[in-house]
Each structure stands twice: as C-alpha cells, then as structure tokens.
Amino acid sequence: MPETTEKTMKQYCSVCKKQFEMKIIKQGGDESVVWLKCPGCKGFLPFIPEEEVEDQEVREAQSGAELALEDLDIENSKEYSDKLEFEIGEVIHHRSWNDYGKVIAKDLLPGNRKTIWVQFLRQGKVQLLEGVK
Ligand SMILES: [Zn+2]
After folding, report:
1. Could you tell me the distance, in angstroms and rounded to a whole number, from the CA of residue 44 to the centre of ligand 1?
2. How far away, in angstroms, is 10 Cα from ligand 1 center?
3. Assuming Cys at both sites, which of 12, 32, 87, 101 could form a disulfide with 120, CB separation 3.0 to 4.6 Å?
4. 79 and 47: one domain?
5. Does 45 share its domain with 8?
6. Shared domain check, 76 and 118
C-alpha cells in the first residue's frame, strides 16, 4: 500500500473532471515524480510541477473559459502587436507563442496604458498591451 502524507496539493483530475485538494503520496526512490491520490476516484496521478508555477487566479479563470480551435475564426485572425489596438471578440495570433486567442476584455492600467485580456488556446488567459506608442 502506498503511504499517504498529511500534505495536500490542488490538482485537476481528468477522470473526475474536477479539481481536488489531493493527498501527497510519500515519495519512493524516484525523486522526480510526486504522486497524488484523488479523493474522487481514489486513483493515483502524477503531480505535474509546471502547473503549479502558474498563478492560482489565472488557473481558475482558465478553467471557466475553455476555448477550442474550432471556436476561432483563425482565417481572419490579426497578428498581435502591442502597437495595434483590438476589439473585444477579435481573433488574434501571437507569433512568438504560435498561439491563437480571442480578445475577451479590455483594461486600463495606471499611467493610461491600454491592455487587452486574451483567452489563448494554449497559454490560457493572458493580459497584453495594446496601442503602445
Ligand atoms: Zn479522480
């Protein structure tokens, strides 16, 4: 029987399609993998460290607004540049990430800097500058 510890970590279970506070299984000899136990399906799943790096707030926002490639009119996408300005609903392509996204909101930062919130297919929700002079 694998030993569970009292420490928990939040992780998404693809079986239960839900995020749980999961108990960390005591690590064995292989230090590179941490195993978590899902309280929903009682299954074991490896903890993926890259997800933990993400900001919690961003992750929660992402889970609410999933985007599929077919939802985007990529034929009419606009190449992102911070010099340009965008409208809500516009589809943009971010060249350095090679990722498509949709403008979901606009925001103003202190100093009157204009920004857009974009829901990207792979990057998730990202705030980008627009209309930089
Ligand atoms: Zn589960």
Report:
1. 8
2. 12
3. 101
4. no
5. yes
6. yes
Which amino acid appears at position 45 of this protein? L
Distance, CA of 78 to CA of 130 (rounded, Å): 13
Do 35 and 81 lie in a common domain?
A: no
Predicted confidence (pLDDT) per residue in 76-98, tens digit? 999 999 999 999 999 999 999 99
Of residues 34 and 40, which shows the higher confidence score? Answer: 40
Buried-exposed string 54-72: b where 16+ CB fall within 10 A, e elsewhere? eeeeebeebeeeebeeeeb
98 in a structural domain: yes
Say how many Å lie between the CA of residue 42 and the centre of ligand 1: 6
Closest to 58 (Cα-Cα) out of 129, 127, 128: 127
| 48 and 98 fall within a common domain | no
Same-domain status, 122 and 74: yes
User: For residue 98, what pLDDT is reported?
Assistant: 93
Cα 12 to averaged position of ligand 1 atoms, centre (Å):
8
Per the structure, the count of domains in the chain is: 2
Give the structural domain span for 48. 4-53
39 alpha carbon – ligand 1 mean position (Å): 6
